[in-house]
Write a structure and sequence with these properties.
With about 130 residues, the protein is α+β, with helices and mostly antiparallel strands. It contains 4 helices and 2 strands.
Length: about 130
Amino acid sequence: MESVDIIFRSCDRSAQKRYIDVPKQELLLGCLNSVLVSAKQAAQEFPRYQIKVHVLDDHSSEETVARMVGLFNTAMLGLRAGSGLSVGLLGAVIGVHRSLTLSAMVVVLIAVWLYTRERRFRDGPA
């Protein structure tokens, strides 16, 4: 299998004048979204290639990093269990690391709940 690596470098801290009059964060997220959509489409059209997207961030704000993580998860996972929304939106509020930790804890709690529920169902009424 052949592989294609796409490297996306980002930084939202720049005073450089842009040709488009939009906030740097929105421009960055729009570009990342375009790259992710294109990578996903290429992976579907050319299944013999392994498409990898690497995001290299150069000290963007915590909010931008959280939104990039949410966008990346949403694009790659297809909103499985709301992961992109929970990590991205929550990450913008409480920080990426705390958001990932909280999301992981929720997944573990749901797994434990489903396991105990399945065991009760399998064992029958008491």
